[in-house]
Amino acid sequence: MKLKKLTELALLTALALIIFVIEMRFPDIVPVPGVKLGLANIITVYAVFVYRPSETAMLVACRIILGAMFSGNMSALLYSVSGAFFCLLGMILISRFLKLKYIWLCSILGAMLHNTGQILAAVLIMQSTAVMSYLPVLILSGSIAGAFTGLCAQLVVNRMSQTNKTP
Amino acid sequence: MKHKKIMIIIIIMIIILIFCVIYTVRSFRKPSGKHVLIIQENQIIYNIDLETAEDQEIKINYQNHYNIIKIQNHEICISEADCPDQTCIRTGVLKSETLPIVCLPHKLIIRYAEEGES
Asked: Which of A78, B81, B111, B116 has its CA 20 to 30 A from that of A92?
C-alpha cells in the first residue's frame, strides 16, 4: 500500500472517530434504544465509493474497535461488528452497479442492513426473539438517518472530486 | 439493465419501509393487558400484574452487576443500572405492547405478557 493512501485512510479514520465521539455527546432524539444519527457513517459511505473494499473494511474495523474503547462500552462491540459487517457487504455490492449520484440509496440500504445485523447479533446473544420487535422501528429511523448521511457523503464526494481535478 | 436493477432495489426498499411505518404506528397503541414479564437469559423471573402491584423497587443481579426496576403508579421502568450504555433507563416507562425495555449487557427484558401467557 502506498504511503499516501495509508495516510489518507488514517486521516479518514481519525475524522470518523472525532465525529463518533462528538455524536456521543448528543442527547437522544427519540427515546428508543439504538436510534441514532450515525454521522460517522458519512466517512464509511464516502470510503465505499472512493477506496477499494479491503481498504474500506480496514477503516471501518479500526473505527469500530477504537470507538468502542473511547465510549467505554465494550459490550456493544459485538453488535457494532455484526451490523457493520452486513452494512459493508451490502454497500460494497451495491456500489458496484450504482452511479455516483445514487449515494443516498446506497446509504439507506447500508443503514437498513446495519440495523438488521445488530438485531441479529442481539437475538443470538440474548437467545430471545423479543428484541426482534425493535427491528422495524430501527429500520425506519435508520433509513431516515441513512438518507441524511448519504446526502452528506454525496456533498463530500462532489467536493473531493473537484479538488482532485485542480490540485 | 443497470437501471432495472436499481428500480428493483428501490421498490423492495419502499415495501420494507411501508411495513416498518405500519408497525411503528401500531406500536404506539395502548396495551390491552396489564401483565408484565421480567425475563433474564430467556427465563421468566417475575410475572407482575401492574393493576394490583404496589409501588416497589426490585433489584435484579446479573453476575456482578445489577438493575433496579421501579414500579410506581402502575407503571414500570428501570431506574438504575450499572451498565455502561444506560439505554434501559433512557427507554423510560414501559408503554408499548410491542416494544420491550431491553438491557442488552445484562440480558434483561421487560415486556407485556401476550394473551394466554399469564
From this structure: A78
- Separation CA A32–CA B53 (nearest Å): 26
Q: Residue holding cell 438485531?
A: A119
Name, in order, each residue with C-beta under 8 angstroms of A140's C-beta and a sequence gap of 6 or more: B17, B20, B21, B24
Indicate the residue of A33, A97, A105 with minimum beta-carbon distance to B10. Answer: A105
Q: Do B13 and A127 lie within an 8 Å CB cutoff?
A: no
B35-112 has CATH 1.10.10.60 classification: no
Instruction: Find the domain containing A16 and state its range.
Output: 3-26+39-165
Q: How far is CA A59 from CA A81, A126, B13, in A?
A: 13, 29, 27
B101 pLDDT above the threshold of 90: no
- Of residues A164 and A107, more confidence is placed in A107
Question: What letter represents residue B82's amino acid?
Answer: D
Contact A33 B87 (CB under 8 A): yes
Domain count, chain A: 1
Q: List residues in chain A touching B: CB distance below 8 A.
A: 28, 31-34, 71-76, 79, 94, 97-98, 102, 105, 108-109, 112, 122, 125-128, 130-131, 133-134, 136-137, 139-140, 143
Low-confidence winner among A67-71, A162-166, B55-59 (lowest mean pLDDT): A162-166
